[in-house]
Amino acid sequence: MAIIGGGVAGLSLAAELAELDGRLVERSGGLRPELRIVLLERENQFGYHSTGRSISALSESLGSPEQRALTRASRTILDALGAESGTPLLRARPVVWVADADHLGALNALLTANPALRGVDPAAAQTLCPVLRPEATARAAVERTAQDVDVDALQQQYRDRATAAGAVLRTAIGLESGTWDPGRSAWTLTTDRGELEAGRIVDAAGPWADAVAARLGVPVAGLTSYRRTVAIATAERVGPAWPLVVDVADRFYFRPERGGLLVSPADETPSPPTDAEARPQDVSVAMERVAAATTLQLSRARTSWAGLRTFAPDRNPIVGPDPQQDGFFWFAGLGGTGIQTAPALARLAAAQLLGEPYEVADLRPEALLPRAQAQ
Ligand SMILES: Cc1cc2nc3c(=O)[nH]c(=O)nc-3n(C[C@H](O)[C@H](O)[C@H](O)COP(=O)(O)OP(=O)(O)OC[C@H]3O[C@@H](n4cnc5c(N)ncnc54)[C@H](O)[C@@H]3O)c2cc1C
């Protein structure tokens, strides 16, 4: 089995797949042949693209009902992985959702979608983040259960577990093309470092998932990538324990980071798959919007970056076998919630690939199948 892509999707799947396969081999008393798992990452390091550029938050209010169900399940997994390894992967950081007078409807929709949220007046929001300008916030909602995820530790843990369970993880090898031989039920894959054979391929190539499918002659899923910009602004008086503050109208978010303030214009600019870069005008917009919502003086951006968030047409992840091409499995379209949903998605995908049961509470896995996307 070849997994293409070494972001959080590919790494989490490699670990879950290799460990589940090990348990199945053991259960069979060694009668079941061990699965050979190879993960190919084109860049020189894992997590170089979307995964390495996220703001590493976990919020149970984000996304579709399916994404919220996957986030709840992933949170339990992340807690357990942290406890098992002795390195906690989650650290509490509340989210304060803010709405101006024109967007109270969006705030109410959020409160309905996540009963754990508590609606508060601007003064109560200010007790959590004292620099919020009361005239810019008509009402707010507090999500006490939100977390920061230690993405570096998470990736390292998945890499360690995958290799300990026998998976081979390789960087600096890009998939270029491949042909399916129905007689042998196997792919011959051509990479920039030579050929390899695989009975199945998992497309976990993030922004390039459609490009990978196209190179193998598989119909694309219709994914679109959008650029998102983040900067660390220099600011006085930033409290390290401030929450993540998110505008319900998707115009900005901010939180403390490394002695400065992490700011984003929450931009969503369509982009081809590429090594995304922050544009100065998007950084300026982020600083202006955050300055308008707060009493902070934001003097300059110390650093900035951008990354791609890749969505299927219905914005749900695509997980499952391709309906038209044997031997091709999708694990793509993780959108803006890939860090907080990958742990449960990887268990689901590993179970599907090995024909084992796995349930995520409140999730119909059919909603994620590639066929559902095409309809
Ligand atoms: C600014 C920003 C903020 C975000 N904040 C959050 C957040 O707070 N919480 C959250 O849950 N999510 C967040 N996300 C979303 C999250 O980062 C993504 O959903 C997730 O990282 C997607 O992971 P992936 O493995 O699918 O993609 P990627 O990390 O992009 O990995 C895909 C990999 O495939 C490789 N690849 C592509 N083509 C080939 C090929 N032909 N051969 C070999 N390898 C190939 C690429 O090099 C790449 O490394 C954010 C994203 C951005 C951009």
Could you describe the 3D structure shown?
It is a single chain. The protein is an alpha+beta fold. It has 2 domains: 2-73 and 151-222 and 313-374, FAD/NAD(P)-binding domain (3-Layer(bba) Sandwich); 94-145 and 224-311, 2-Layer Sandwich (D-Amino Acid Oxidase, Chain A, domain 2), CATH 3.30.9.10. The chain is 31% helix and 27% strand. The protein has 9 helices and 21 strands. It has helices at 8-27, 65-85, 104-113, 122-128, 151-164, 209-215, 280-293, 338-354, 370-374; strands spanning 2-4, 38-40, 57-58, 90-92, 95-99, 118-120, 139-143, 147-149, 168-170, 175-181, 186-191, 194-198, 201-203, 224-235, 244-247, 253-257, 260-264, 269-271, 298-311, 318-321, 328-332. Strands 5, 6, 7, 14, 15, 16, 17, 18 and 19 form a 9-stranded mixed β-sheet that branches. A 6-stranded mixed β-sheet has the order 9-2-1-13-21-20, sandwiched between helices. The protein has a 3-stranded antiparallel β-sheet with strand order 3-8-4, with helices on one face. Strand 11 (186-191) and strand 12 form a beta hairpin. Helix 1 (8-27) runs parallel beside helix 5, helix 1 (8-27) packs parallel to helix 8 (338-354) and helix 2 (65-85) packs across helix 8 (338-354). It is elongated and about 70 Å long. Residues 4-10, 40-43, 47-51, 53-57, 174-175, 204-208, 212, 228, 230, 307-309, 334-340 line the site of flavin-adenine dinucleotide. Flavin-adenine dinucleotide binds next to helix 1, strand 14, strand 19 and helix 8.
